[in-house]
Amino acid sequence: MAYDVASIARHFELAGKPEAIVPITTGHINDTYVVTENAGGQTARYVLQRINHYVFKEPVQVMANILRITKHIKSRVSKADPALASRQLTVIPSDEEPGWHRDSSGNFWRMYGFIENAVTYDTPESSDLACEAARMFGWFQGMLTDLPGSPLHETIPGFHDTPRRLRYFQQILAEDKCSRAKGAAAEIDFVLEHAALCNVLPDLVATGRMPVRIAHNDTKINNVMLDKNTGKGVCVIDLDTVMPGLSVHDFGDLVRTAACPAAEDERDLSKVVIDVSLFDALAQGFAQETGRFLRPVEKSHMVFGGTLITFEQMIRFLTDHLAGDVYYKVHREGHNLDRTRTQMKLVQSILEQEEILNGLVERAYSNSPNDAN
Ligand SMILES: Nc1ncnc2c1ncn2[C@@H]1O[C@H](COP(=O)(O)OP(=O)(O)O)[C@@H](O)[C@H]1O
Ligand SMILES: [Mg+2]
User: What is the whole-number distance in angstroms between the Cα of residue 66 and the centre of ligand 2?
Assistant: First the structure.
C-alpha cells in the first residue's frame, strides 16, 4: 500500500523540510521510513512509522505508553550518561496530538529521532552479540522498575495468557474445520501431554510469589540497537508491546529466538537445538542487569520461561494450522505445521538440557551484581 508519506511527515515538528523518504524493510510489524530533513544546510534523520492497527487495536494507548516509557528512560539515562541519553528513542511531537498523527484513512503515524551510528542484527552471529542484546533487555527492564503512575495499558490483551491460548487451541481442535488434525497427531498429543506447563506462571502470580513487572514482550535481538563501532548496546526499540508482564517471559522469548540459530520454519529438525554457548551468553547478559532487582523465584524460572514461551508459540502455530492458516502468513503448504515442529523440537531440546541450562543461569546470577537478595 502506498502512503503519501511526504505530507504525513509534514505533520511532525521538524526543524527543516523533509528532503528524502526511504522505506526500511527489515521490520515485520510496522511500516517504517527514514525521513531526511534539511534545515539551512544541516541535515537530520528521523524514523516515520505507521502503527499496525490490525495487531495493535488501540494505537492511542500504544503511544501513551511509549511517551511515558521514552521520557522516563531518557531522564534516568541523562543523569548517568548524557551522551547515551541523546541516543535513546525520542518521540517527535506532531501538530495535533502529543506524539502521533492520524491520517485521513485512519492510519496512525509516529516519528522518532533516528539513532545514528547504530545497527541491528537479525541473527545471533556471535556469543558477544547474544550477551549484549540480552544485557540490553535486562537493562530495559531495570530502567522501568520505577516508572511512576498507573500501570501501562495492555496493548495486546492476554498476550501471554497461555491457559487462554490453550483453551482456544482445544476449541479449534474440536472443530477441526479443515480436517488437518489427523496429519498433526504427534504435535497435538505433545501439546495435550504438556498442558500443565501453561498454569505454572499464572499460579505463581495469582499467589503473589511472582511479581508482574514491565516487560518488553518482543525480545528479538533486532530490537536492540548496538553502536556500529564498539558493538555496545545503545537502546532498546520496538516498544509497542511494552506492558505489564513477567521478566521470565522476556528472557524466555530471547531463548526461543536467539539461542538456536535455525530459522523458525526450518524443516531439517536436526538443526533445531539449543546452542548451549549462545544460551550461556544470553543468561550472562540478562543476569548482569537484572541480578539486582529480580526475586529468587524469577531467577529460578528463567529456563522455564524459555520452555513456556516456546511451547506457547508452538500452540499458536498449531492452532493456526488447524484453523486453516488465518493469522500467520504462509508461503507453502503445511508452513504453520513446519513452524509448529521447530517449536516442539526446541521445547524438547530445552527440556532435555534443563539441568545444564539451569546450572548456567544459576552461575550467571551468582556472578552478577546482586544487591537485593
Ligand atoms: N529510531 C530508529 N533509528 C534508527 N533505526 C531504527 C529506529 N527505529 C527503527 N529502526 C530500524 O527499523 C527496523 C524496524 O523497526 P521496529 O521499530 O523494530 O519495527 P517492527 O515492529 O516492524 O520490527 C529496526 O530493526 C531498526 O533497524
Ligand atoms: Mg522490530
Answer: 15
Q: Name the phi and psi angles at 47, rounded to 5.
A: -115, 120
Q: Is the alpha carbon torsion for 210, 56, 116, 77 positive or negative?
A: negative
| Alpha-carbon torsion angle 114, 116, 121, 127, nearest 10 | -130
- pTM over the 0.70 mark: yes
Instruction: Kindly report, residue by residue over 84-101, the tens digit of the pLDDT.
Output: 999 999 999 999 778 899
Same domain, residue pair 62 and 173? no
Question: Ligand 1 site: residues with CB under 6 angstroms?
Answer: 24, 26-30, 32, 47, 89, 112, 114-115, 120, 222-223, 237-238
Task: Round to whole Å and give the CA distance between 36 and 28.
Answer: 22
Domain assignment of residue 64, given as a range:
5-116
138: CATH:
3.90.1200.10
pLDDT in tens, 91-127: 999 997 788 999 999 999 999 999 999 999 999 989 9
Residue nearest to atom 21 of ligand 1 (CA): 29
Q: Are residues 98 and 170 in the same domain?
A: no
Q: Which of 237, 239, 240, 242 to mutate to test the pocket of ligand 1 (most atoms within 8 A of CB)?
A: 237
